[in-house]
Amino acid sequence: MASEYLHEPKHLNLKKDSDQPLLELKSLQTHFFSDEGTARAVDGVSYKILPGETLGVVGESGSGKSVTALSIMQLVPQPPGKIVGGEILFKGQSLLGMSEDEMRKIRGNEIAMIFQEPMTALNPVFTVGDQIVETVRVHRGLDKEEARAHAISMLEKVGIPSPETRVDEYPHQLSGGMRQRVMIAIAMSCDPSLLIADEPTTALDVTIQAQILDLIRGLQEEEGMSVLLITHDLAVIAEVAHHVAVMYAGKVVEYATVFELFDSPAHPYSLGLFRSLPDLAGPNEPLATIPGMVPPATRFPSGCRFHPRCSIATDLCKTDEPILGFLNGTDGRTVACHHIDEAAKL
Most-buried pick from 9, 122, 249, 278 (CB within 10 A)? Predict the structure, then answer.
């Protein structure tokens, strides 16, 4: 359907599905409690990431993508947030059962994260070099001289010119693309097994976006790490992902390989996202849109949460919540919809 966006991943060297996932979420629930009610930001999310794989997580703002990532990192602010159910398994071990000291040894070391906006994620009162040095000294036990040398080598590795000079500069002295590269350098400084990239190309121009994606992909190929890529941009997903989890209103509504999803999206929401893409081969016409908005997490509708915006919704959709189930004739692809056959005709 949108094959013109797809590129064969250069690093498609994955282990078989029978191998142990590096990361696996099982019915994860993260809620926020306030006077307005309980916001079920993440409400039963399940997916897995294999060693060396890139999993793309896509959906509109408010779908729960970033809160899921913060839950993995155990960075959900408490209060008002709390992980109230489910499992997070990393290398077969439960992260939810770990103490804060144990999580500190994993966070930034084995699992690293690139946050949405580097200007707010980076500390404005410390040089970029100091911020890399802090990470490697905590996790690798290097002395100041060794850590500084490592910081310079990391800045060089992510393509920052004159790293010996840039290491002593502050975030405000760098461009947006440079700051994003610094964020990647910090995240990669301890050779993590999993990199979580939360909207890594937001607010960057198209040329810089391509450079950042190429950088992440090159580092992944070189280091053999897994990547969890969170974005609302399907073109980015097509460029780098192996599998895709489509999220809506705190849930995964479709999980498939990138080729399956782009060739034949099965959920009406997935189809709506693809129809909102510009037609690269067709005439210059207005883009299609999905009517309405993602409902607030405090007031999810009953039944299928997408039914108020769905053109094929029936009374069943309004009362019964669909379960994420395997699609007939596919290997591991799952969809949460009562009317998959009807959706295929749209």
Answer: 249
Note whether 187 and 200 are within 8 A (CB).
no
Round to whole Å and give the CA distance between 136 and 144: 10
For residue 90, being part of any structural domain is answered with yes
- Residue in the structure block whose two tokens are 């500084």: 148
Residue 171, domain member (yes or no): no
Could you tell me which of 89, 84, 41 has the C-alpha nearest to residue 66? 41
Tell the residue number behind the tokens 């309405």, with chain if given. Answer: 292
Helix (H) or strand (E) run with residue 182 in it: helix 176-188
The pLDDT of residue 282: 60
CA diameter of the chain: 67
* Chain-centroid distance, C-alpha 257: 15
Dihedral of the CA atoms 311, 312, 318, 320 (nearest 10)?
Answer: -140
pLDDT higher than 60, residue 35: yes
In a domain, 169, yes or no: no
Q: What is the pLDDT of residues 63-95, one digit of tens each?
A: 999 999 999 999 999 889 999 999 999 999 999
Question: What token pair was written down for 311?
Answer: 């053109």
The pTM for the full model equals: 0.87
